[in-house]
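One such shown below:

_____
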Amino acid sequence: MNESFLPKVVGYKIGRFLGTGAGSTIYSVRKLETGQRLVLKHVLRREPGDERFVVQALNEYRLGSKVTHPVLRRVLEMRKKGLLSVREVFLFMEPVKGKHLEEQQPTDLALILRMMVAVSEGLASIHELGFVHADVNPRNILLSRSGLVKLIDYGLSCPIGTVKERVQGTLVFLSPEQARMEQIDHRTDIFNFAAVLYWLVTSQTIGPPEVGQNLGGRPHLVAPRDLNPNLSESLGQLLVRCLSQKQGDRPGTMQQVAQALRAELTEIIKLPAQRREVHPATLPSKSVVRHIPLVNDPETKAKDGP
C-alpha cells in the first residue's frame, strides 16, 4: 500500500498493511515510546452510510478495553477525531496469531471441544461484565498452530437487555430474537455459540432463520447425532437445548454450557482417533452476511451486508 495513504498517529509508527474489515483498514504498528507491537484498526467515515462502522468501532472499544480473559482480544487504546460527531476512530489492539475457523477447521472432536470450552469461558467472562458479544461466528474465532484460541470482534456487542434498531448478526448463526429485533441477552450468545459448535461437529449449518409468520425460527433442525453418530447423546441434547427457539428454554448461563462441554471432553478424549474425526465443510457465502433485513423478501436478505 502507498505510504501516502497511511494514517498518521502521534506516538506510533505505522507498519505493514494487514487487511480490511467491516468499514475498517488494519495495520501492524509499533508504539514508539515502548517498542510494543500492536494492531491498528482504522475506521474513517466518508459518507453517511459509514456511521455504523464508527459505531461498531466505539462498541469494540467499550467492551474490548474491559476484558481480561486470555481468550478475549484486548483493545488497549482508542483515539477519535471529530468535533460534533466522530468521523475517524483508531483502535490499538493486542496482536493475535491464528486463522479463523473457516480457514482452519479442526477435524478432531476432542480439539473442537477443547477450543469451544475456551470460547465458552471467554463468553461467560463477557457476560459477567454485563455485555453480550452478539456475533459469535467462525470468522470471529481464531485458532493458532499451537492450539491457542482467541475470540475477536466486539463491533456488534451491547449491554445485556439491549433491543437493537436493526437486524445485526451473521446469517446462519443468528438467533430468533436477533432476527425479530427483540431484547437480547447472554442466552443469545449461547444460541450463536451452539450454532457454530453444531457446524463444527456435524459439518452442516442450522440453516438461515425463516421469514414470514415464523420469523427467525428453524423448525426443522436436524438432530446432531443424525449427522454425526460419533456424537454422544448428551452432547446432541445439549446442542438442541442451546438452540431452542425460546431464550427461556436454553441453559441459564454460559458457565453451565462450559461445564457440560468439559464433561463431554473428558469422555471424547478416551475414544480412538477414527471415532473423533469430523469432515470439514465450507460455509456458503451467504452465511456470513451481516445486517440482514429479514422482514423483507428472503431473496433480498443477503444483499445488505457491508
Summary: The domain at 99-288 is CATH 1.10.510.10 (Transferase(Phosphotransferase); domain 1).
